[in-house]
């Protein structure tokens, strides 16, 4: 597990290049059941500005698994900004509303005009940001004065018990390094005048059955796998298969944090 010390004082694991391997099974491995999509649509809408339509930035949009939903939920233009070409190409190839536009960019260099976004959503992408101060400035720049930033993330000071952490040795330790603390996020945005106003815990269904869950896990589409060695992954897969055999039809649920900044 290779950690790097960043210039802003925090420690992060080596960056994950989704163009190399992670893009290959990502769309299938991170597929979201329709029930979960509806849960997140409601959770985001509850914390977004009340007016409609809203212009929305999906920052770190990946293969676009949520971008079309944002257009349907908020009724305005949605920009999916994603730095990895292979991920962005899959998003562009998938069906999406005409109001959705996918752009090459990153949190530290957002290709949008000043004050163009009513709402910015970062869904499991904040932990990939390397230059947090620069990203905070860019987010503030493109956000309207009364806009909201919604960050779906795991926070290392609120790390929940996660079933697959028990299967793969080193996974929890890797994610403790991968994910920021709530204090890290507060410190990131304070200089640009954005502060946390709430953290919601959103319960969602990850998979209809353990069998389905394991099928997706075998694709290793969670970036944490990039920080585990081959032996840990192989042993973890065996533990996972034993857990699935014991409860193949059990639905898999989990809790996700949604931080609201304004």
Average pLDDT confidence is 92
Number of helices: 10
- What are the segments in which pLDDT stays under 50 over at least 5 consecutive residues? 2-10
Distance between the termini: 35 Å
Looking at CATH, the homologous superfamily is: Vaccinia Virus protein VP39
SSE series: EEHHEHEHEEHEHHHEHHE
Helix content: 25-40%
CATH architecture, please? 3-Layer(aba) Sandwich
| Oligomerization category of the chains in this entry | single chain
Number of strands: 9
CATH class: Alpha Beta
**Structural class determined from secondary elements:** alpha/beta
Radius of gyration: 18 Å
Strand order of the largest sheet: 5-4-3-6-7-9-8
**Principal-axes shape call:** globular
CATH topology: Rossmann fold
The proportion of strand residues reads 15-25%
Question: Could you say how many structural domains there are in total?
Answer: 1
Summarize the biggest pleated sheet: 7 strands, mixed
What would your notes on this structure say?
The chain is an alpha/beta fold and 262 residues long. The chain has a single domain (3-161, 177-207, 253-261), classed as 3-Layer(aba) Sandwich (Rossmann fold). Helices cover 35% and strands 25% of the residues. α2 (34-47) crosses α3. Mean pLDDT is 92; it is low at 2-10.
